[in-house]
Amino acid sequence: MFAKEGLEGVVAARTSICLIKGAEGAKAALEYRGYSIHDLASHCGFEEVAYLLWYGALPSADELRDFSRLMRANRTLPRRVSRALASILRDLTPIDALRAAVSILAADDLDAADNSPAANVRKGVRLTAQMPSIVGAHHRLAMGLKPLAPDSTLNHAANFLYLVKGKRPRELEARALESAMILEADHGLNPSTFAARVAAGTLADLHSAVVAALATLKGPLHGGAAAQVLAMLHAVGDASNAAGFVRKALAAHARVAGFGHRIYKGDDPRAIDLKRWCERLAGKGDARRRREALKLFDCAKAIEREVRKRVPIAPNVDFYAAPLWSMLGFQPDQFAPVFACARIAGWVAHVAEQHIDNRLIRPEEEYIGPLSRPFIPIEQR
Ligand code: ACO
Predict the structure, then answer these.
(1) Does residue 261 have an active-site annotation?
(2) Which residues pair with 21 in a beta bridge?
(3) CA 156–ligand 1 middle distance (angstroms)
(4) Relative to the CA of 223, which ligand 1 atom is closest?
(5) Distance (Å, rounded) from C-alpha 290 to C-alpha 205?
(6) Is-contact 112 133, C-beta < 8 A?
(7) What is the atom index within ligand 1 of the atom nearest the CA of 339?
(8) Per the residue annotation, which of 138, 139, 156, 261 is the catalytic one?
């Protein structure tokens, strides 16, 4: 039986991590372990949601305190990763450097080859704590600056901004990043998580599965889309140009970056929250920053209006993530790594789930090439 192209409609895993409900309608909902992402993004910290994804239950206050301490204690990079970042990895793009650095992290991880549930969580803690340190160090080295030591007084998201920007973020900025990272922490069997589960299905270890996930996230149809959205917003330049841009793009059957989704046929619930965060951030900061942010946001809203007028597709998570990451001071080539620093929580949960109840993932193919050809020796070809 041939599945639709792109495995559409195929159910390839049983999971108790993430549920996407009512994806066909305008009111889709997304839950992690049974909790609405809107509640989690409004009330929880990123560490709390990682705990939920990995342990299946929200932590008590004591459990969260211990867990946050553990995460904070694991942010420093092993020396061989710092050295690699300062030499060969500095010349790679941020997402390529992150992928390579995660491979190198395995070399110092005593649990590297242990696929037990407890070891997967221990490695998950280290990877989640260290990935922002990699992104921050790579950014500063590429700018000719010294990487900063993590700040253990800051929570996960605030420390991430500090490591990249070199100054402690304002509370609203840190909360915006934290909330957005919660919204992006998991999303069922999306391409990068599927890749991670395929790798884990061969009983490859967590680091290997995360490298597969990072390679898959990079593409412009997945985590690479946000950078394309920002490029589009800059190219359009002003809200008044949106109608012409959208009309031309759709007439040429081009894809509008940040729109459409394999699962959601109506609104993507994450995009709704991210749009609200853009709105809150756009009005803040000095006059120049406010002007730039409002222009970007107005342009995004105008593109959304024009697309919706013409075709039944809605913005996906990347559409408003792009202006949000930009308002937070991330560079476009850091958008996919920022996404990865959020999605690592989901990857860890899915790899652990795959390892617990594993069967090799191996679909079949339909062969459409030539058949039974007579072999011709090389001298006669
Ligand atoms: N712009 C214009 N039309 C679109 C878009 C878009 N961005 N996305 C889908 N469509 C249209 C298609 O042309 C097609 O129309 P048709 O049936 O008349 O031919 C219909 O919607 C269905 O599109 P498919 O290609 O079948 O959708 P698929 O599920 O294969 O692809 C994808 C989903 C890759 C996300 C697609 O919507 C796309 O390319 N979007 C732009 C890239 C993007 O934003 N990616 C990020 C996705 S979210 C994430 O991974 C984090």
Answers:
(1) yes
(2) 29
(3) 33
(4) 51
(5) 45
(6) no
(7) 51
(8) 261
Segment 340-352, tens digit of pLDDT? 999 999 999 999 9
Q: What CA–CA distance (Å, rounded) separates 379 from 182?
A: 62
Kind of pairing, strands 18-21 and 35-36? unpaired
Query: What is the per-residue DSSP string for 32-83?
Result: ETTEEHHHHHHH--HHHHHHHHHHSSPPPHHHHHHHHHHHHHT-SPPHHHHH
Q: How far apart are CA 159 and CA 157, in angstroms?
A: 5
pLDDT recorded at residue 13: 94
- Angle (CA) 195-256-316 rounded to 5° is 55
CA 346 to ligand 1 center in whole angstroms: 23
Q: Does the active-site annotation cover 187?
A: no
Question: What's the confidence (pLDDT) of residue 289?
Answer: 83
Residue-wise pLDDT for 89-104, tens only, equals: 999 999 999 999 999 9
**Single-letter amino acid code for the residue at 357:** D
Evaluate: CB of 264 within 6 angstroms of ligand 1: no
Beta bridge partners of residue 285, listed in sequence order = none
Tell me the C-alpha distance between 103 and 123, whole Å. 13
How many whole angstroms separate alpha carbon 149 and alpha carbon 233?
34
How many Å apart are CA 258 and CA 224, to the nearest integer? 10
Compute the distance between CA of residue 57 and CA of residue 128 in angstroms, rounded to an integer. 18
Regions of the chain with pLDDT less than 50: none
- Residues 9, 12, 16: CA angle, nearest 5 degrees: 110
pLDDT at 287: 81
Please give the helix or strand (H or E) that residue 355 lies within, else none: helix 335-356
Q: Tell me the one-letter amino acid at 272.
A: I
Interatomic CA distance for residues 126 and 150, integer angstroms: 14
Of 355, 149, 178, nearest to 274 (Cα)?
A: 178
Does 257 contact ligand 1 (Cβ within 6 A)? yes
Q: Determine the distance separating the centroid of ligand 1 and the alpha carbon of 231, expressed in angstroms.
A: 18
Compute, in angstroms, the gap from residue 260 CA to the centroid of ligand 1: 4
